[in-house]
Amino acid sequence: MMKTADMVCALIGMLFSGGAFAMTLFFKKFKNVPVGPEFFPRWLAIGLFICSVALFVQALRRPVSADKPAPSISPRNKGIQRLLIGMAVILIYAVTWELVGFPITTPLALFGLMFLLGLRRYPVMICFALGATAAVFCAFKFLLGIDMPLGALENVV
């Protein structure tokens, strides 16, 4: 059962990565820009494809006698519940970051995800969430020249 599940997941991963890679072929091209917006997603798609092929080959090489039953996916499973909550946090982050602003939504999302993963060292979590937000904001603003949405802080900064 696990062998079949791994092979199906690997095939889905290969199809998904192929679709994602194909989508990057239609990204807008910019003149005099050595690294365009397609660079990072394209390499992520390539990485996913390589990992999916590795999973498929590993499943093929696994003897049937060593096959275990595939775990079921149930909403009662604590791991699945954390996954769904994490996806909800990311969805809320994506929907609100333009309106509320990157400097407000990002540390809240990072703190929430760290809490969801089981971290409970609150001073460290706060410092990391604020520090990572500041580092990303400065990298985009000053190194890349890309303005991040400020939302409610638009008139302040």
What pattern of helices and strands is seen along the backbone? HHHHH
Low-confidence stretches: none
CA-based shape? flat
Structural class: mainly alpha
What count of helical segments does DSSP give? 5
Roughly how many Å is the radius of gyration? Answer: 20 Å
Please give a structural write-up.
With about 160 residues, the chain is an all-alpha fold. It folds into 2 domains: about 70 residues; about 90 residues, no CATH class. The protein is about 70% helix and about 0% strand. The longest helix has 23 residues. The protein is flat and about 65 Å long. It starts with a helix and ends in a 14-residue tail after the last helix. The model has no long low-confidence stretch (mean pLDDT about 90).
Descriptive terms for the model:
157 residues
Layout of helices and strands:
Elements (H helix, E strand, L loop, with lengths): L1 H23 L14 H23 L16 H23 L1 H15 L5 H22 L14
Brief overview, please?
This protein is mainly α. 68% of the residues lie in helices and 0% in strands.
